[in-house]
Amino acid sequence: MNHVSSGQPTPSRWRRIFWILASAVLLTVLGKALLPELASMGKERVALVRVEGPIVDAQETVNALHTFGQDPLVKAIVLRIDSPGGAVAPSQEIYNAVKRIRNTDHKTVIASMGSVAASGGYYIAVAADQILANPGTLTGSIGVIMQTANLEQLLEKIGVQSVIIKSGRYKDTGSPFRSMDDGDRRLLQDVMDDVHRQFIEAVADGRSLDIADVEPVADGRVFTGKQAKDLLLVDELGDLRDAIMLAAEISGIQGIPPVVEPSKQFSFRDVIASQIFGFVPAVPVHMGSNLMYFMAL
Question: Quick check: is 5 catalytic?
């Protein structure tokens, strides 16, 4: 006996329709992601490396710079800086990495300043071939800061006594559990002055200025991008696109260049942290009594 079809799709047909639609969506997404890369395959390009937020570690940025420095298709690098600075040593490590890109890999590096590129952020920028800032960028802050707290009286009020056992006169210099004496202060000031001098020398070298010309503006003050240009601390006023086009022009790339950025591995931890802490202003996690090239505003 023949059964007449009701015309209703069977479950198996629904599954086939679902997988066809899902495959179409997947191919569309992959196409949008891969077509730009396929279109620029084999073409000379500009790499974009971002330094954002307080500088507390240099490894990720240094690795990205090294990777692009070794890539024969990358003819220039734009260093996008949106940072108030941070710890001294990581700032110097990124500075040195930029210098290696220029001197060893012989590639153009353009620094592009965002909302703020101050202190350690500016230290990094002076290693580049040219610096572009927005007119309202906050930059400069050429100085060093070390912060600590004296909790001695607070501990006394709550009946807690600090016990320190040390070898060496200055081993607990900067401790929050005792007052700083004149010897401690002189010692730390000598250290600060030396690190400050390193900053001044880096600016003078990077900007082709005499140290005597840098010293008057190296008192920790901040400047707008427009003021910094007048003081020869930046080269031109312009945004990120201007920096990319300048990098392409200097490195001999015709027209609008393909732009590549470091690939970042997906991390559930980063996603969760951004959702939980994304609204909290970023602050250096290594403040303590560490030396900081940091804009303390």
Answer: no
Q: What is the 3-state secondary structure (H, E, C) of 192-249?
A: HHHHHHHHHHHHHHHCCCCHHHHHHHCCCCEEEHHHHHHCCCCCEECCHHHHHHHHHH
Residues 292, 37: Cα–Cα separation, whole Å: 40
Q: Which residue out of 91, 119, 141, 251 is catalytically annotated?
A: 119
Q: Which residue in the list 23, 171, 267, 274 is annotated as catalytic?
A: 171
- Tell whether domain 44-294 is in CATH 3.90.226.10: yes
Q: Where do the domains of the chain lie?
A: 44-294
pLDDT tens by residue, 155-211: 788 988 888 888 888 787 777 778 888 888 898 899 999 999 999 999 999 999 999
Query: Is there a catalytic annotation at residue 229?
Result: no
Give the predicted TM-score (pTM) of the model.
0.78
